[in-house]
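Amino Acid Chain and Its Fold in Token Form
===========================================
Structure side: the spatial fold of the chain, written down as a series of whole-number tokens.
Position: the record begins directly beneath this header, with no further notes in between.
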Amino acid sequence: NRNGQIIIVHNSISELESLQEKIANFVPNHKIQIGHGKMKGKYLEKLLLDFHHHNFDILITTTIIESGIDIPNANTLIVLNAHRFGLSQLYQIRGRVGRSYRKAYAYFILPRNHTISQIATKRLNTLEYYTDLGSGYQIAMQDLEIRGGGNIFGAEQSGHLNKMGFEYFNKILSDEFTTTKNPNKKDVVKEERAEINLQVESHISKNYIENEQFRLEYYRQIGDAKSKSELNKIELEIKDRFGPLPQETQNLLLETQIAMRASRSHIYKILQQTQDEIRLYFDNQVQIIQLQKNIEQLVKNCANHNYHIEFATKKELIGKIKNSGNSALKLLNLVL
């Protein structure tokens, strides 16, 4: 009715012809064609050129139109089973309409009485929220947060960056490449922190800082901090902008402080497998004299606060601290 054209996306080649028949029954006076990636290149090229010149009105197709297709007259998009598509993919498909002065509409269709997963709902809500020109960056950041960052050297295509942020991940990767390229150079400084895995919530929640860019930026700042004073400045800034810190964010800042102190004591990993025990893994490459000083101080601190510590040295030096039910973060903050 608006003298435009319609693109219908259905990502199942075997069902395109039956869908074409159904649509033809709805609009018998309009020309309908189907297109998909199994068609010969020349035929598909002619089909898209015919659609571009408005030789037919409705194109039923698969995701081959995701990018590189410019049909200025197309002003309506219908995506069937939209919950099966990725966020960035839906954003690209949506960009196939509204490419001229004509006002365009994009409809993302879900099956009736079908349960949609929480992640699929997040993807669709994001598309509904970000509709302004130039929203691609916000879409990409939200997509990163929903899927995670992945494993760059492995088979996993999704992961979680909640504890470091994308930029800090890139910094760690860059440092590792630098060290690998210059294994014998003493001037290459690799900043490290102890790896901490405790049974406590330590993150910046969406309820506290809703904007994902701000959250990732503060993760990056916390990850880049080199001292307690820098962390205190970050804490004051967050409080000033967003109010009192929730417990899980306080835990994140304290965990970062403990990681700094642990690395200075030549502890490279802290692991809490049970509520009753915390394990400290010492760096075996450090000279024994240095380790002895750090261990003596650790034993003294544990004794002053009535914590029992023992050591295992079969394969590597591991300190085991018995926990009597107190918070693991509180315990480590006292003894390190």
Q: What stands out?
A: Strands lie at 5-9, 32-35, 58-61, 74-80, 105-109, 195-197, 267-274, 277-282, 309-312, 318-322. The first helix runs from residue 16 to 26.
